[in-house]
Each structure stands twice: as structure tokens, then as C-alpha cells.
């Protein structure tokens, strides 16, 4: 019986990643270094265009920021990178 959105707020302490558009709880909870934001909270009338813009931003973040962190490993073989915001 938790409040709406609090499960997302529990992601970091449980080893997960936050990466989303800035709506819902993420618009309030986002801060650089705690995950990644897709866009800056823009709203679009043309939903097809919104899908194009946000999917492109998502793939760019994954390719250039998120996935490379998995391969930055310490001597123990564990990922050591942090989010760049």
C-alpha cells in the first residue's frame, strides 16, 4: 500500500537505474548523478513526433552513457561507473 511512484524512488538503494522522461515522480525526483532524464519535460501535440524525439534520446543515452558504464569495471570485475546525469 505505498504511495504512487515511491517504487521508482527505491530503485537506487536496490541497485537499479532510473532513466525516464520527466513526468510523474521522476520530474520531482530527478537530479544529475541519480539517473538519466529523457528530454527536459517538453510536451508535444504531435504524438508521433514525440515518439521519434524521445526514442532517439533514449537510444542515445543507452548507447553513449548507460551501456558503457557496465563495461567500466574495477579489479574485482564489478562495474564501477556512475551516472553522468
Structure description:
There is one protein chain. It contains three helices and two strands; from the N terminus they run αβαβα. Strands 1-2 form a two-stranded parallel ribbon. The longest helix has 25 residues. β1, α2 and β2 form a beta-alpha-beta unit. The chain has 85 residues and is mostly helical. 41% of the residues lie in helices and 7% in strands. The protein starts with 5 loop residues before the first helix and ends in a 14-residue tail after the last helix. The protein is flat and about 50 Å long.
Number of separate helices = 3
What is the percent of helical residues? 40-55%
In N-to-C order, the SSE pattern is HEHEH
The average pLDDT value, as a whole number, equals 85
Low-confidence segments, given as residue ranges, are: none
Overall outline: flat
Spatial strand sequence of the major β-sheet: 1-2
Report Rg. Answer: 15 Å
Structural class: mainly alpha
Write the layout of secondary structure elements.
Blueprint: H1 6-9, E1 19-21, H2 24-29, E2 36-38, H3 47-71
Parallel strand pairs: 1-2
Q: Quick summary of this structure?
A:
Helix content is 41%, strand content 7%. The chain is built from three helices and two strands, in the order H-E-H-E-H.
Q: Tags for this entry?
A:
single chain, 85 residues, mainly alpha, two-stranded parallel sheet, 3 helices, 41% helix, flat
Amino acid at each position: 500500500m505505498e504511495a504512487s511512484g515511491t517504487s521508482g524512488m527505491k530503485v537506487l538503494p536496490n541497485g537499479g537505474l532510473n532513466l525516464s522522461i520527466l513526468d510523474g515522480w521522476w520530474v520531482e525526483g530527478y537530479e544529475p548523478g541519480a539517473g538519466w532524464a529523457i528530454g527536459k519535460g517538453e510536451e508535444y501535440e504531435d504524438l508521433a513526433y514525440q515518439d521519434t524525439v524521445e526514442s532517439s534520446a533514449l537510444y542515445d543515452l543507452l548507447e553513449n552513457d548507460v551501456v558503457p558504464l557496465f563495461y567500466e569495471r574495477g579489479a574485482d570485475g564489478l562495474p564501477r561507473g556512475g551516472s553522468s546525469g
